[in-house]
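Expect sequence, tokenised fold; for instance:
***
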Amino acid sequence: MSNRATRSLACAAFAAGLVCDPARGNDGAVRAVLFGSMEASASTFSASGTKLVFDRFDRDGPVALVTGGSGVRLEGGGRGPVLMRLTALGAALGGYQFIREWGAVTVFAGPEASWEALSGPGGVQALPLRAGLRLHGEVWARPSEGTLATATAILGSARGDAYARLSWGTALFGAYLGPEAAVYGDRTDYRKWSLGLHATDYAMGGYRFRLSAGCQIETPLNQWSPYVALAIWSAL
């Protein structure tokens, strides 16, 4: 797994994206957004969760974010054996959102937990459960009427990992279309860089979607490979 657990938390940014359009926040009954994501590449990860507000999505105020996910990735190679790392992750974060005319800024902090196992020629080795602190910040901005820019940054101490993603989109065909770039690393010396295109905030039957596709390079493969990611979210 490339720890797109970070991607799972980044999916929460979609929930924040709802506040970028005040018309969507005028219903005072809206209090939560449910979301899920899946990425297929040399490594894979899937996750789901919810973002909660204690007032309305279009107002400043406290927020909460609960996520969980699991994935798998290959490690090793060269003179060492190729191992498969299985990971399960979870986090429960609290924070605050700042709503402005141009968009929204949200910051979170809270506990996280990670459980991992390594599978290889010698069998399966379960690693100890790790707990730590996660910091999460995201920005959804509309520089102009027809554009959307996002930024997400996450730091976690349970796995010693860091993740960042930037995207830009122009309104076309019912979504925001444009480039995206992301980078991830953790204490195992695993690194991943990706560059691609995304279509964000496409609406269908009460749900909203983001589809991403592009190329990535990650250790230990150290070669470019394709990736495809899908996220879906819905306000309650």
In short: The first strand starts at residue 32 and ends at 40.
